[in-house]
Amino acid sequence: MAHSHNIARKNLVAAILLNAAITAAEVIGGLLTGYLSLLADAIHNLSDVASLILAYLGEIGAARPSTKRSTYGYKRIEVMTAMISAVSLIVIAIYIFYEAYRRFLAPQQIENPTLLLIIAGIGLLGNLLSIWVLHASKDSSLNFKTAFLHMLYDALSSVAVIIGAIVIIKTGWNYLDPILSILIGLMILWSSFKVVKEATMIFMEAVPEHLDTDTVAAEIEKHPLVCSIHHLHIWSLSSTSVALSCHIVIQDADYTRAPEVIYELSRTMQDKFRIDHCTIQAEKDYCPDSDSPFNIVHDSGSHDA
């Protein structure tokens, strides 16, 4: 696992350097040619460089061991950095919309179209290389998922930039430039919204989308020695780590087997639901709590050993 994370981080560094070079080339090309879509793509790439750096720092921080003060470690650093990256992209999109509005009022001619197409082509090639580098790690954490999405939307916007430039050069319809810029901005907003939503739900300690609380509760109650379950809570420590805590009721005659039951349930939660951190408390009596959504005894009948 550690080896795969090291490879993923190296790929992230490669993507950072690659996109920094793309950004520099597109900024120069956008200024020389006056093509807003290329500048918008460059700004998008600049934000990607920042987000990739944040993702790298987030991965380093998330890998730090737990301490007496931070008992869960620093797993949520990667969520925090992903959130900062997504919010920054929203700000970038708003700026692109503003610049597009100005271009609608005063369309600008494209200068040096050959240079424009060369630089746009380099940008597209760089984005495709970044996608290839990050593809293997895209599902390993929210940070890598965010970085991969940035590269994917960058590649799409680069295609739009090239097609738009060709159309403008052939037809002279300069209004296509701000239109494409707005479309790029909308893509940025959409990808950012999804990341912000996921990060917010993690910070709010909501149940992960891939899990259903009733299904998890029913699985726990299937154990032959569990009479009922209450105080069930499921939340995300990070985009890849899920925690669970609950109280289970075991009959007095079977209570000496509580450690065995807890071990078996923890293995089940890991194998069936990918819940890697379980805190299960065994009790002989039910303790009601009005704050718990599972404060009604889910009696699964008499369980005889």
In summary, what is this structure?
The protein is mainly alpha-helical. It is built from eight helices and three strands, in the order H-H-H-H-H-H-H-E-E-H-E. The chain has a three-stranded mixed sheet with strand order 1-2-3, with helices on one face.
Report on the architecture of this protein.
The chain contains 8 helices and 3 strands; from the N terminus they run αααααααββαβ. The chain is mainly alpha-helical and 305 residues long. A 3-stranded mixed beta sheet has the order 1-2-3, covered by helices on one side. α2 (36-62) runs parallel beside α6 (176-203) and α4 (113-134) runs antiparallel to α5 (142-171). It is elongated, with a radius of gyration of 26 Å. Residues 295-305 have low confidence and may be disordered.
List keywords for this structure.
8 helices; Alpha-Beta Plaits; 305 residues; disordered C terminus; mainly alpha; Alpha-lytic protease prodomain-like; 2 domains; 3 strands
Spell out the blueprint of helices and strands.
Blueprint: H1 2-33, H2 36-62, H3 77-105, H4 113-134, H5 142-171, H6 176-203, H7 213-221, E1 228-236, E2 242-249, H8 258-273, E3 277-283
Parallel strand pairs: 2-3
Antiparallel strand pairs: 1-2
Helix pairs in contact: 1-2, 1-4, 2-3, 2-5, 2-6, 3-6, 4-5, 5-6
